[in-house]
């Protein structure tokens, strides 16, 4: 499969590297490749400059959002939540139409102080906003409830733990579930919550995730729905 | 200990019965005991009339909110979230002052359709609203992230699963943790998230809880934080 991974941060790099290691053709999308490659300082989260990372991942090409999306069979959104809709607009409606869009972003809002809150929250979600803005795209929200290293290596966390999928298209959710299994997720760990509206619930896990990160002092944890199979 | 349990619904009944079974003196608080006892129909959730329930729990007295709170060492809020602040106003600032208030309520908002949303949400929580309205009360938010039968019998759910506590008073959180252990919770299952501000995170688990309830078709599940101890 040819994947476009939109976003050059830690999540994008981690997903892109995993996809490439599984034999997929991967292009990372960014607003302006020259600007991205010109950066020589670590980003705000302490990740090394993209050019350094790419030197170790020569099989992964960097391209503008539209170029990346145009050549892809499926798209992964790992941009910061506040920039997701602009990034997808830049990718282009026609370049996205009919494709599966795996949305890993969370609409974190840093304007109300730390830890960040969510915007939208409550009666809307970023997943729904994207689906409404791009009705011909098959949006599947998943993986947004954990640290990126766990996304591609669930064995980092001992015991059973859960990855949620939300989306309106059953076929797209089945394809994404297959991808998750290829990442190392047992099929029994994947919970299909229902339509893209259920992305509200998974995005609203972020506030407690952020507080657990603070309280536990590490990010190698994940939510598990205990008893999910009982009586099901 | 003498407990006042505010609220006559399924959560209040379940908590009250458990406390009484552990030898505590329990009074259930309601707005108007005569009205509550006069009901002969099941409530909106299908629970039998309170009078029927009380006939099987003769050791548990029903009283007006203020009467219940005045005679208690500690108070448990199990009222519907939208009615929690009015119920606590009726209980009376002086009757609550200095006491531990275990807040199990969630601010479910049924005005935006089903499933209910939350109000407040995002940058405030019901737990914080209660703490602000009653600054002399030691509010501990806990148990609000699961079905009431699991609250008092965690063995209903196989495997490890988690109960969160949030609150500004360490002594109150220690006392509540001891109570949780007496309910059957392993101390290792209790995660102290921090101040009452962290109640935002646990209240925001309700949206995914409600969708899991729909998706799984039963309520005998609970959240577990897998990997919580790793590296801690």
Automatic annotation (TrEMBL), chains A, B:
Superkingdom of origin organism: Bacteria
SUPFAM superfamilies referenced in this protein's UniProt entry, alphabetically: NAD(P)-binding Rossmann-fold domains
Keyword terms: Oxidoreductase
Pfam family name, one: F420_oxidored
Protein name stated in the entry: NAD(P)-binding domain-containing protein
InterPro entries: NAD(P)-bd_dom_sf, P5C_Rdtase_cat_N, STEAP_metalloreductase
Keyword hit for NADP: no
Residue span(s) of domain Pyrroline-5-carboxylate reductase catalytic N-terminal: 3-107
Oxidoreductase found in the keyword field: yes
């Amino acid at each position: 499969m040819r994947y476009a991974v939109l976003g050059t941060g830690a999540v994008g790099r981690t997903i892109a590297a995993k996809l490439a290691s599984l034999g997929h053709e991967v292009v990372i999308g960014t607003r302006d490749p020259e600007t991205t490659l010109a950066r020589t300082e670590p980003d705000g989260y302490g990740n090394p400059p993209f050019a350094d990372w790419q030197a170790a991942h020569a099989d992964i090409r960097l391209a503008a959002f539209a170029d990346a999306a145009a050549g892809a069979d499926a798209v992964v959104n790992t941009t910061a939540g506040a920039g997701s809709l602009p990034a997808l607009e830049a990718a282009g409606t026609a370049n996205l139409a009919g494709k599966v869009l795996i949305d890993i972003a969370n609409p974190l809002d840093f304007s109300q102080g730390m830890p960040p809150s969510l915007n939208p929250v409550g009666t809307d979600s970023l997943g729904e906003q994207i689906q409404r803005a791009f009705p011909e795209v098959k949006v599947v929200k998943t993986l947004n409830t954990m640290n990126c290293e766990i996304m591609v290596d669930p064995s980092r966390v001992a015991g059973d733990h859960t990855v949620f999928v939300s989306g309106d298209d059953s076929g797209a959710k089945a394809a994404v579930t297959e991808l998750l299994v290829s990442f190392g997720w047992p099929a029994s760990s994947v919970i299909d919550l229902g339509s893209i509206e259920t992305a509200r619930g998974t995005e609203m896990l972020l506030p407690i995730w952020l507080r657990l990160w603070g309280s536990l002092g590490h990010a190698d944890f994940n939510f598990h729905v205990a008893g999910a199979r009982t009586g099901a």
